Amino acid sequence: MGNMAPFILRGVTLKGIDSVMFAKEKRAAIWQQAV
């Protein structure tokens, strides 16, 4: 999960608060692509 932190922070920085709420679903898709 250590690798997730910078990725999430980057997303929050780029898209703002919206990314946080929408990251929950998006994160799962990104995780599958990343892994």
Helix and strand pattern: HH
Please give the count of helices: 2
What Rg, in angstroms, do the CA atoms define? 9 Å
Largest sheet: none
| Number of domains as seen in the coordinates | 1
Distance between the termini: 12 Å
Tertiary shape: flat
Q: Quickly give the structural class.
A: mainly alpha
Q: Considering DSSP H and I runs of 4 or more, what fraction of the residues is helical?
A: over 70%
Poorly predicted segments: none
Number of strands: 0
- What value does the average pLDDT take? 67
In terms of DSSP E residues, the strand content is: under 5%
Protein name: Alcohol dehydrogenase
How would you sum up this structure, described in words?
This is Alcohol dehydrogenase. It comes from Escherichia coli. The chain is mainly α. The chain has one domain (about 10-35). The protein has helices at about 5-15, 15-35. The chain starts with a helix and ends with a helix.
Q: Can you tag this structure with a few keywords?
A:
2 helices, flat, 35 residues, 86% helix, mainly alpha
Question: Any chance you could write out the topology, listing elements then pairs?
Answer:
Blueprint: H1 4-15, H2 17-34
Helix pairs in contact: 1-2
Protein name: Alcohol dehydrogenase
